[in-house]
Structure formats: structure tokens, C-alpha cells
Amino acid sequence: MSKDKENKKTTEATEAVSKKKVPRSRKKKKAIQQVAHACAYIQATYNNTIITLTDQNGNTLAWSTAGACGFKGPKKATPYAASVVVRKLLEKIPEVGIKDVSVYAKGVGQGREGAIRAFNTNNVNVVSIKDVTPVAHNGCRKPRPRRL
């Protein structure tokens, strides 16, 4: 009788495992909207390059960074890393159909020019380039210089 009980327990356990509900993802996929003209915001710092692609209203379509593309340390701030970021960014959204881009560059890093050149080489028409780097108008006091 003990073998029958053991067999019954194992079959009940396997049935219980098979009856468990699999959780479904509740995220809805966003509807793909066709955007002919987009805005690319390039933030080039001394340590990294961040590029965000938005539509005319400012809604984010995609973003990418040099760190997310696999670069580590000082290699993230290179012009080559910025070109790889642009390539990966355009691979994320091939179905949107972007033809024209307005570029807004912010920061002093080396990735600014590399990213703009990468947009040109990837068959995207750069309509305008604006420098939106914030510049102080003698507002706050500068931090004291470091003593080494």
C-alpha cells in the first residue's frame, strides 16, 4: 500500500505543478508612430556620452549611452564610442522612419562631433545643429580651486 500512496503523491505533485498559472506580462506595447523629423539631444561629458532621440513634442523615442554599448572607463568619452551609440540608437527604432534630425549638443566632451558625424554617415539628414551648453552669467560663486 505504501507504494500506491507514494505514486499517488507524486502524480498529485506533478499535476499541481502543471496547473500553476504562469504570470503574464502586463505591459502593453506602445503603438509605433511614424516620425519623419526627430530631435537628437547629445549630452557629452568628460566621462560619457548620452544621446536621446525624441519627437517634435519631446516624447522620448529611444536613448542610448556609451556605457550601455559596452564601453568602460575612459573609452566611454571617445568619439568612436559616440558613433557606436548613434548606430545602436538607430538600430533600436528602424520602423519609425526617421529622415530628418535636429541636433542639440550639450557639454564639452569629445563625443559631440563624433555623434554628429555618425548621424550624417547613417543616412540621416541633419537639419540643424544647436549648442545648448549652459553657461553661467556670473550667477553662483565658483567652487574654490583644489589644493594638492
Describe it for me?
- There is one protein chain.
- The chain is α/β, with parallel strands linked by helices and 148 residues long.
- It has a domain of 95 residues: Nucleotidyltransferase, domain 5.
- The chain is 29% helix and 24% strand.
- It contains 3 helices and 5 strands.
- The protein has a 5-stranded mixed β-sheet with strand order 3-2-1-4-5, with helices on one face.
- α2 packs across α3.
- The longest helix has 18 residues.
- The termini are far apart.
- 26% of the residues are buried.
- The model has no long low-confidence stretch (mean pLDDT 84).
**Residues in helices, as a percent range:** 25-40%
Kindly estimate the percentage of residues that lie in beta strands according to DSSP: 15-25%
CATH class of one domain: Alpha Beta
CATH topological fold name of one domain: Nucleotidyltransferase, domain 5
What's the arrangement of strands in the largest beta sheet?
A: 3-2-1-4-5
CATH architecture of one domain: 2-Layer Sandwich
Q: Give the helices and strands as they follow along the chain.
A: HEEEHEHE
Low-confidence stretches: none
- Given the helix and strand composition, which structural class is it? alpha/beta
CATH homologous superfamily title of one domain: Ribosomal protein S11/S14
- Say how many strands there are: 5
Number of helices: 3
The average pLDDT is: 84
